[in-house]
Amino acid sequence: MNRHIFALQQVARRTISSSVRRQVDNKVPQKQKMFQEDNGMPVHLKGGTSDALLYRTTMALTILGAGYVVYELVKAAFPQKKD
Fold first, then answer.
1. Is the CB of residue 55 less than 8 Å from the CB of residue 44?
2. What are the transmembrane regions (predicted)?
3. CB contact burial 51-69 (16+ within 10 A = b; e otherwise)
């Protein structure tokens, strides 16, 4: 039993210490330059097409949700008359 635990510790130590670290390019300076550029666009749309699509989807869902809330409030304020 002890032998198995010792073997497991060695394998775990070997895989952790010998794992290859992948180099990742630092894109922060490029992103900072893009977002600090004064081109008249709002900062929440400077990310490109995906930001614009996300913004429009969020606005559409917000408007639909607000409309549904108003509909339910009106429906609750004026209940249907029963015969």
1. yes
2. 53-74
3. eeeeeeeeeeeeeeeeeee
